[in-house]
């Protein structure tokens, strides 16, 4: 396959709202790296922050990623078209998705089996909203043959939801999910597959609550319309919920989540609060004997293998959650508009 010298890309060029379509050089493939022809990519919450260039982006993007200009995006799938020197685990023609955190392999966390939370974690040199993406060999994960590129592009965020569910047992028990964005919707599907008896979900977007219902949620609540804590208490005989997944990052919703948690219940926190969270530690944690878990990315590569098993077998079907398919280079503004308004499940960009 002929690889051109230049390629189309969606680039963050300035610390202001928006992104730019540009023609940029196709990256050179170094030792241990693979070049991927991008087939599909997805919008993550962090991409929305970067697109808007809000306070979070101002604080984190250059620290965690690189300076601008930077090609946007990190969730994607595609075909390997070139491998660098020393690459042995994948080959040209492989269909892959990618783990986006690159552990150092040397630090205390890496050496003790917690490489997902590496002290020196790195990201891809550049983003993936382009015709080609360059990633380290170790980041590549094969996509099951039964999955499309579009489904492959969401294996990374799906694996975050998988990681969250790994901390708890939900079979025959009640589950609460705070936030019906893509990770929340994936969590509904996984909880259902794991045998949860009842799945409660809250979100301020009725569009997303409707998607949650279709995905298997048994109770959907819009906190702008009802008192969700009262509702949950009422429907559980005052007990509260056995496991709650806090995915919204909304401080008020997180406080309510602790109030809805059953005594001795499990709180799994994935959302990033935008302001300090004040809890009644005695009532909400200590006397409740709550178990609290933080979810940082994916448990590499356990979460990925579980994702392959759940999606590859058809046990979980994510297609209904992939609500919008848009052309990357001509419709990226539209895609970000949908994602930021909550008028979508997962937005997928396809490359012709
Ligand atoms: Zn992501
Ligand atoms: Zn490390």
TrEMBL record:
Pfam assignment, any one: ADH_zinc_N
Keywords: Metal-binding, Oxidoreductase, Zinc
Domain called Enoyl reductase (ER): residue spans: 18-349
Keyword Membrane applies: no
EC number(s) per entry: 1.1.1.103
InterPro entries: ADH-like_C, ADH-like_N, ADH_Zn_CS, ER, GroES-like_sf, NAD(P)-bd_dom_sf, Zn_alcohol_dh
Family annotation (SUPFAM superfamilies): GroES-like, NAD(P)-binding Rossmann-fold domains
Gene3D superfamilies: Medium-chain alcohol dehydrogenases, catalytic domain, NAD(P)-binding Rossmann-like Domain
Enzyme superclass (EC): oxidoreductase
One Gene Ontology term of the molecular function aspect: L-threonine 3-dehydrogenase activity
UniProt protein name: L-threonine 3-dehydrogenase
Upper classification of the organism: unclassified sequences, metagenomes, ecological metagenomes
